């Protein structure tokens, strides 16, 4: 019976790898087709905001990224095949010259490093070829290398202690190890979200308080009403890496921050800054980060519960082409194989995110002038060369923000 279970899981797992990646390639093809169809004219709704030259640049930039993503999808599928059915993970596990808890930890750290190095050429190409072609990249090789080394070191230290804790709990606490592991990971996650704005993000960028006499009155009114202080609004020096612009809300408790990219803020007038700021404050006021964390914790709890049930089941390991029962392989399966099974839940996750963006837009429209948010968003689309048209099915899977046309129509209905 165990061999039969293993066989069914192997067939299902391999089938899903192939089907999921074929679907993703199909979705990319649909998006490329819709971009190509609309390259010669600006959609009527955007005629007064967007000229044909910038529209065509966005189409060509979006198409180039999609074409690159198709090669990356094939590469991703090949890596999954190598690590699982071709037993690359098992070979790596057996090559670690350590014992006990350190063997499990360094197997996983070695896998993360190998996966990072195998995907690094795509990052280099995207940064120094694709982004250069469209004049977005401002990063030099030295800064790129510094960022990568910082990321490897920081990620390595954090993951080392997390994995040491998880595997120690697995080895020493018996049947309920998964509950304690869930609690440990939850605590770490909350601490990292709290520390990110003030400790982690400044390792990569410089943050300065948003200031200016003309802005201060409007900013203080908005942030006070939302329960923040003007000192929690920052400008980030994104221009040293890219000319793309954005804004975001991050942090928990006293470490909350609204951050504007310096590349964005210089293209907006004061009223548009207020509108974009109100949108980000809307995420905070509506507790979107807390809601996302709560959902994440629910799924994390379920995941650890399933891990607890599967941790001693040989058929489960064999079903993913692994013949050794170990905590390292258990965590490896759940980190690398589970996304294959949950691919079809991606539209739900994207829908929740888009709904929250609409809610933040509505908050901004209530607190500021809706038309200022419309013009501010359109400047953001134009500045980032983001296509304002999209395939509906592609958007259903991938867009965490509403498509431009839906978003602008919604805001214009508020204006009317």
What's a concise summary of this model?
The chain has helices at 2-37, 52-83, 88-95, 100-133, 141-172, 177-200, 213-226, 262-265, 270-285, 288-310, 314-319, 327-336, 338-342, 346-367, 370-383, 392-398, 404-415, and strands at residues 207-209, 233-236, 247-250, 257-261.
Number of helices: 17
**What is the helical fraction, as a range of percent?**
over 70%
State the end-to-end distance: 65 Å
Low-confidence stretches: none
Mean pLDDT comes to 89
The arrangement of helices and strands along the chain is HHHHHHEHEEEHHHHHHHHHH
- How would you sum up the global shape? globular
Residues in β-strands, percent: under 5%
**Structural class determined from secondary elements:** mainly alpha
Topology:
Elements: H1 2-37, H2 52-83, H3 88-95, H4 100-133, H5 141-172, H6 177-200, E1 207-209, H7 213-226, E2 233-236, E3 247-250, E4 257-261, H8 262-265, H9 270-285, H10 288-310, H11 314-319, H12 327-336, H13 338-342, H14 346-367, H15 370-383, H16 392-398, H17 404-415
Parallel strand pairs: 2-4
Antiparallel strand pairs: 1-2, 3-4
Helix pairs in contact: 1-2, 4-5, 4-12, 5-6, 6-10, 7-9, 9-14, 9-15, 14-17, 15-17
